Amino acid sequence: MKKLIGLKKFNTAIFISGNGSNLLNLIKYSLKRRSIIRIKAVVSNDLGAKGLEHAKKYRIIKKVFKFKNKIDDENKILRLLKDKNINLICLAGFMKILSKNFIKKFKGKILNIHPSLLPKYKGLNTHFRAIKNREKFSGCTVHLVNAKLDSGQIILQKKIKIYKNDSPNSLAKRILKHEHKIYPKAIEKLTTNL
Length: 194
Ligand code: GRF
Prior knowledge:
The protein is an alpha/beta fold. The chain contains 6 helices and 7 strands, in the order E-H-E-H-E-H-E-H-E-H-E-E-H.
């Protein structure tokens, strides 16, 4: 693996599909002097993703790839990433599954945030399933992306209590606040270990 430690800041691309609250949080983090990342591109598979507005506001290059032809679009994204000299990718609510080939090109340099205590509750509807199974705790996890869904090495995790009166919505909201805390920390942890 290429040593990244010598770099002052990691040129980072954030991939989104929706609201982009994690994107906004990472943008704000990136603007701090002690931040280890510089956000150089935002990629979305959805033109209507609300998060794209954050990219616009902060004048970050944003590109939409609809993934109708996954291989073509991934190749276009790879060209964009090369062009922008990207050395870290953060998935933040990105709803497409990247191919093995794509992941191989950024091995150990793609992070994802997932709203559960992985390895529990991979995939969708995590909060609903955790409440239905009467779990006492849920949480969020930042992990490296490998070829299997939500299965790469865990970098950081935060455990959160599920209250008796929690709905999937209330739990999601509470967990999201902690997502915003752990994602920058996980980035710092990963980049100092590289
Ligand atoms: C977050 O809960 C994240 O963990 C999951 O998708 C959601 C994205 O939220 N992967 P946002 O778009 O960052 O607000």
